[in-house]
From TrEMBL:
Ranges annotated as spanning the membrane: none
GO molecular function, one term: enzyme regulator activity
Originating species: Candidatus Atopostipes pullistercoris
Pfam families per the UniProt record, alphabetical: P-II
Entry coiled-coil feature ranges: none
BP GO annotations: regulation of nitrogen utilization
Name of the protein described by the UniProt record: P-II family nitrogen regulator
Amino acid sequence: MSRMYLAIVNRGKAEVVIKYARSVGIEEGTVLLGEGTVRSKVLEPLGLNQTQKEIVMLPVTKEQDQLLHKEISKKLKFDQRNKGIAFSIPFKRWTKESTSFSLEEEDFSSSLIMTIVEKGKGREIIKAARKAKARGGTMIHGRGAGVPQDYYFPIQVEPQKDTVLIVVQKDKKDEVKNSIEEMINSETDGVVFTLPVVATSGIFEDRIDEKISKIKGGRN
């Protein structure tokens, strides 16, 4: 079973992820530059709520994935707001001789909604997602390096396009996806699709669960 581990971190912090990944035997990977959004009633009207991000993509085993979620969350303080998030998607290796490939079935409670639209429309996608109660997203601009050739992963960063990544709980997926599709149909051209997410760290719901666990632990 293989996974793709993605960490979205503040600019300059990708090196921390890569260094730890190498220490546990992960040699392949890609770093893309992106732009995140911060929810702020003060900054948003001024257009100052964008933050510079690095997106680290690493092909990993399930065991390596578990180590990354545990250790990178600690190193980069994902339990604090605006420090970063990570999530993992299941998939298969494939070869040039393969005639087909597919995502493997695995239990998941979250989904990645990916949207590819004309350059400059990425922020509108995030606004549409927020109308459906999504908490934000990350945009990748322009052309970026690819993932290893023997891995299938549907991020192809094209010139003159914005790629928007939004992670939501599975039960919110359809509502958020429908809101994005309505925006695309009325204002621009684009494509939107979803992928299962089998592990997360730093997501809002993760921080809430961790706080609850700490409270319960303090009572024992």
